[in-house]
Specification:
single chain; 195 residues; mainly alpha; elongated; Pentatricopeptide repeat-containing protein At2g42920, chloroplastic-like; TPR-like_helical_dom_sf; PPR_At4g14850-like_plant; RNA binding
């Protein structure tokens, strides 16, 4: 099975398995979750997630990682809290979050304006689990701090980035700084990037 056609076949097969009272394996669940992601089928993905939770399906790392891969889709559809809950499932199942799952939960927190929660995840990632940060991780953090009006914290984070943050992050910082007339801070940020 491949592409959207295979995704439709996977969801149809699951319906038939349920009708015949056949318990799906973890691989079936992963295939179904991936099929829903491929189809952009948020409702079906939620239904499968509910099935996993309701039937106390074994939440091993493979299944939970497939679930957390759906977090950005949830966040993009205004369901940030559910995306964060999925990440919590990954943590509670003793699954080890990776840089991609962290990016998903940071994105969800960012879209939901959850500054404190995103900061907690960022610190967990950097100080406890010690995952190497990408510019995308920093960008999510800069954006949420910036939108919350935490300009000094934003500037401090930008200074801590070990590589040149580039125009995307700098632009994200500079625009709101102009709005609140913090030109000096914007100049320092520009100087940091150009030095």
């Amino acid at each position: 099975m491949s592409g959207k056609e295979g995704s439709f076949e996977a969801t149809d097969l699951f319906r038939r398995m349920k009708g015949e009272r056949t318990k799906p394996s973890e691989f079936t669940m992963v295939s179904l979750l991936n099929a829903c992601a491929c189809l952009g089928a948020l409702r079906q993905g939620e239904w499968i997630h509910d099935y996993i939770v309701k039937d106390n399906f074994a939440l091993n790392a493979i299944v939970v990682t497939a679930i957390i891969d759906g977090a950005p889709s949830l966040a993009m559809n205004g369901r940030e809290n559910e995306a964060v809950q999925l990440f919590s499932m990954l943590e509670s199942s003793n699954g080890k979050p990776d840089h991609i799952s962290f990016l998903g939960v940071l994105t969800a927190c960012n879209r939901g304006g959850m500054v404190d929660r995103e900061t907690d995840y960022f610190l967990l990632m950097t100080e406890t689990i010690k995952i190497e940060l990408s510019i995308e991780h920093y960008s999510c953090m800069v954006d949420v701090l910036d939108r919350a009006g935490l300009l000094e914290e934003t500037e401090e984070l930008i200074r801590s980035i070990p590589v040149n943050p580039g125009a995307v992050i700098l632009g994200g910082l500079y625009s709101p700084l102009q709005e609140v007339r913090k030109i000096e801070m914007a100049k320092r940020a520009v100087k940091h990037v150009t030095d």
